[in-house]
Amino acid sequence: MGIQDRQMLNDLIVESKEHLSNIEPDLLELEQKGSNVSDELINRVFRAIHSIKGGFGFFGIENVTRLSHSMESVLSKIRDKVLIVTPDLVDALLSGIDKLRTLLDDIDNADNIPIENEISKLSPFLESNKNRKAEPTQSSTNELDIAIRKKHPDLTDDKVIEEIKNGRFIYQITLRSHSDLDDKNLTPAALFEEWEKIGKILDIMIDSDSVDKLEGATQKELTYSIIFASVLEPDLIGIALNLKEEQIYQLDTTSIKKQLTKENNGGGSQILKKDNETTKEKSQSDIQKGESKIEDVLRVKVGLLNKLMNLAGELVLSRNQLLQYSNHSIKNLLETERILKDFEHKVEISCNRIFETTRRNPTTGKEVLAEEIKKIKNFFSDCFNIRLNELPALNVIIQNIDRVTSMLQEGTMQTRLQPISVLFSKFPRIVRDLAKKCGKEVELIMEGQDVELDKSIIELLSDPLTHLIRNSVDHGIELPEKRVASGKNKTGKIILKAFHESGKVHIRIEDDGAGIDKEKVKKKAIEKGLISATEAESLSEEEIIKLILLPGFSTAEKVSDISGRGVGMDVVKTNIEKLGGNIEISTLLGKGTAITLHLPLTLAIISALIVESEGHRFAIPQVGIEELVRIRSKDITKMVERVGNSEVYRLRGKLLPLIRLSTVLGMEPTFIHPETGERLPDRRTRWSDRRKKEGDEKKENSEINDKRKGVADRRVSLSNSIKIIVLRSASEPFGLVVDEVYDSEEIVVKPLSEYLKQCGCYAGATILGDGTVTMILDPNGIVKIADLKFKELEKAKNEELERYKKEQQKEIKDILIFDNGSDERLAVELLSISRIEKVSKDRIENVGNREYLRYENGVIPLIRLHNYLPIKSPEVENKDYFFVLVPKTENIEKKAGVVVENVYDVVATEFSSLDKATIQSSGIVGSKVINNRLTLIINLAELTYDIITN
Amino acid sequence: MEYKYVSFGISDYFLGINVVLVREITPQVNFTRIPRAPDFVCGLMNLRGQIVTIIEPGIRLGIPPREISPKSRCIILKTLQEIEEKTNGINLTNETVNEPVGLLVDYIGEMVGTKEEDIESPPANIGEIDRKFMKGVLKLEDKLMIVLNTTEILKKPK
Question: Which of A172, A168, A164 is nearest to A145 (CA)?
């Protein structure tokens, strides 16, 4: 076979395989809809099989042609509504398709692979109809029959019968030595060799009649009569052999066939059995072989190719522009060089002249000097007259190239992307077959078939997914009776779903079957010696389920040919890991199992946001990013709340847990010293904390002084604001706090080093535009590492809630202790005041016998407590300032200030144990001994309200 | 059979590695440090567009970390495939990582050629270095060269 032929054959194989996978779902539909099926569907299947038959007929691959011929015959009966579609019929057709695939996979060996089993499955359908249909055709062929018989071809010859048995057509071909051989410069041997490729020459006779007739002719023309057997149909044989139609007669073989089938039904069964066994063995080895098989041909939409062609065209255009530009530039440079040389020369002449004249005549020298300088100036301005404006704008060209390059890159990437439906489409068939085999009823629901994946990933996914689907049907879904008994729908459900999330592709296989029995798994694992009994005790539920991924594990009681050999999940695991993905299993006994494959974004160019934390730069895949939030440094304390050890940010009313990238990555927190610019360790644990070095009291003081002087806090600056990247992980959104956000960049994802896989927070590495290596962060990994924090957050939330509840019961309240300039201790509830103001005496205005304080934009009345309460008056007022407590009021008009002398402390007190009897007065809540001093607790709100309204 | 070794120094130790394992030696010692990485992984280096994981064999051997000096070099090792293509004698197993790896060493010494039989089997330990990291030792005129067991050094992390 020539190279060209080989190429053609390969193309044909690829094409045929596509045909086969395309018609498989059609056949399943056919089964479901029975005979109500549309003609279009049948025709589609028919055409596909027909073209396979035709194609391989040309290459003389007999088994393919024979099998597809049988299938075609059955299909044509269905098309003509002679045959009714039954599950058995579809089974026969499907097994035919399978066998065709096997043949195509090993095309060189195709003729040695037995196909009798499949053909015999199909033949009953064929025969039952042939009987009905054969009658009318018989009469039409009668005439020909007679004509042929006249030439005595012996159809009962063993050779001929053998060929008929194989489903071939028998032709009688008339060949003239003159017109068919000599004119075409062919020797009979060469011609027959050609013919042997598409069929078999059974007999060659020299036509005695024509020899007689031609006797005496100068150029002897011989007529050969050839009995030729071929799988090609009458309408194709002429083209294949390059002969005119009238040279070919099809011999009627119906009667012989009939005879043969009768014989077959009697004695053929034993052969079939044997055949059965060999195919079984064969198919098992096929499975093993198939695991590493990778299709090398890719189909690309013509539209996309056209787009790429256009882009390539544009790129060429831009290149031409660039070349032109560079030509211009070179020309210009040469010109510039010339002009500059000229300039140099002229300057030299001028210099000489000046030198000469000043030497000869110093007086006129000045004039000459001025004149020459003017000349030099003129030369100089000439130099600038280089015609720069002729150049095409470089900027435009570069912009264009930039645009075209990125579009080209995108387009090229797209050619590699294929919808996952390529993979999914084979599952309905697998599920159907398996369900039937296991006697189960299973419905397969597929979602997200348009999710596109890199071709190489799709190829490697095929086996793991098949295993998982098999497992779901075989182990997961229970038998119908059992399902009904446990109150489930008789028909089991398997949901196969593909979707994009956080920069990864996820594929989930979910069933509503029996779920995985953890105890059983544990027992089996111990039994098989995968773990020891003591080890098993210490395993968590999650770890137990993970045991099924170990090589050699199987819970199946019986080893069936579908599953249970204990290689399945191991294969899944290794294959997925090969792709850099991971498996997540969640199961509920009696309810079902969901297995999710997380596949990485490797092999791709993605756009990512570059961020910085503690001087390290990282890339975050853009797909996972929801939004960016910046909190101004002055708002930090207000917007960032603290729950336990975790920080949260209220994003549009929802609590968003904050994770600091530096903490997750275990980097020492640092800050850049504003003066020295060096990076120093930062000991703050929260943003509201002031930065200070331990034992650096002086510095702290000076910092406070700085603030007083009006120097802005150094934290209050743009760079000190908090940048939050809101990421969507598999669970819920969270905010990743980084130090700096840079640009978004197109990055090439390089696989993660094996040493770094255990870090758990990286998806890969990349090289940025400036050549530095940067890690790509994995949002899910970050959440996992920070998971403890999430739990802590929840715990803290609950704790706080509980504490709050307790406090409510106990009525613990914070009180502010102060005095009124005397030795009596007074206190108010902290929550009842809005401000404590330090006020100098000169801010007090006196109106009548009342005192007022300029406060905010207005004035508020001041209250001296001793005027209203049974307490001592202040002893001596010698301080030039005092404190004013401003109670919380709803109404701004009713604001008042309470004058106090000294403010001491805030103390939590149980209000329930307050002594309300000893000292009673309006405005006083009660008294209590706090810090060994009797303290009066004042109801400030009531007091001020009373005073003001009076 | 004669072997050639690239000799290098880590702290006070003088070590050697079979030359067939070495792709190149580069004076480039700038790399991106990776937070959360194992302590012996220095970081990732951009070696002409290829990302190379730089590890410090010293730390794997139990030698305290040292500063990078102007004499520091990276020995870039061949990957599994590269080795398999060219030699049959040395087999790194599946246990080792299969990616470009560079070893950060304090300085590079000369090439040392020796016969196989001159390499003595290693003692239980030399200083801080455990026996499992040594393939053998070779007595040179003035010092002892430890032949490094690369398989052990490049073992996949568990």
Answer: A172
Residue A33 CB contacts under 8 Å (≥ 6 apart), including other chains: none
Q: How far is B145 from chain A (nearest CA, A)?
A: 28
Least confident of A443-452, A511-520, B26-35: A511-520
Q: Minimal CA–CA distance to A416: which of A262, A267, A533, A299?
A: A299
Could you write out the DSSP letters of every residue in B70-137? TT-EEEEEPPHHHHHHH-SS----TTB--S-EEEEESEEEEEEEEEGGGPBPP-SEETTEEGGGEEEE
Calpha distance A20→A295 (Å, rounded): 15
Amino acid identity at A463:
D
pLDDT of residue A141: 40
Rounded Cα gap, residues A237 and B135, in angstroms? 72
Residues with Cβ within 8 Å of A218's Cβ and at least 6 positions away in sequence, in order, are: none
Residues A473/A494, Cβ–Cβ less than 8 Å:
yes
Among residues A517, A498, A518, which one has the least CA distance to residue A509? A498
Q: Give me the pLDDT at residue A60, please.
A: 77
Say what the pLDDT of residue A709 is: 40
Query: Minimal Cα distance from B49: which residue of A?
Result: A767
pLDDT tens digits along A306-353: 889 988 888 888 888 888 888 888 887 888 788 888 888 888 888 888
Q: What is the pTM of this model?
A: 0.42
B158 → chain A, closest CA residue: A758
Is A616 in Cβ contact with B35 (below 8 Å)? yes
Interface test with A, best of B33, B39, B44, B98 (most A CBs within 10 A): B44
**Alpha-carbon distances, residue A54 vs A114, A449, B55 (angstroms):** 20, 32, 61
- The residue type of B68 is I
SS3 for A362-403 is: HHHHHHHHHHHHHHHHHHHHHHCCCCHHHCCCHHHHHHHHHH
Å from A705 to nearest chain B CA? 38
Distances (CA, A) of B96 to B50, B155, B157: 19, 4, 9
CB-based contact A755 B157, cutoff 8 Å: yes
Read off the tokens for A774.
């940067």
Q: What is the pLDDT of residue A690?
A: 43
Rounded to a whole number of angstroms, the distance between the first and last alpha carbons of chain A is 116
Q: CB of B32 within 8 Å of any CB in chain A? A: yes
Q: What is the pLDDT of residues A167-226, one digit of tens each?
A: 677 777 777 766 666 666 667 777 777 777 777 777 777 655 544 444 444 455 667 777
Q: Number of Cβ pairs closer than 8 Å across A and B?
A: 61
Nearest to A772 among B41, B46, B98 (CB): B46
Q: Is B39 on the interface with A (CB under 8 A)?
A: no
One-letter-per-residue 3-state SS of A711-739: CCCCCCCHHHCEEEEEEECCCCEEEEEEC
Measured between alpha carbons, how far is B11 from A375 in angstroms, rounded to an integer? 71
Partner-chain residue, chosen from B32, B33, B157, that has the shortest CB–CB distance to A754: B157
Residue B136, chain A, CB below 8 Å: the answer is no
Q: Do A773 and B35 touch (CB under 8 A)?
A: no
Tokens 């694992």 label which residue? A525
Inter-chain touch B43–A761, beta carbons under 8 Å: no
Q: Are A535 and A633 in contact (CB under 8 A)?
A: no
Tell me if A881 sits within 8 A of A839, measured CB to CB: yes
Give dist(CA A410, CA A629) in Å, integer: 30
Q: Check if B19 contacts A (Cβ < 8 Å).
A: no
B126: contact with A, CB 8 A cutoff: no
Judged by a CB distance cut-off of 8 A, whether residue B95 touches chain A is no
Structure tokens at A851: 């005192």
Task: Give CA A210 to chain center in angstroms.
Answer: 74
Partnered with residue A206 across adjacent β-strands are A224
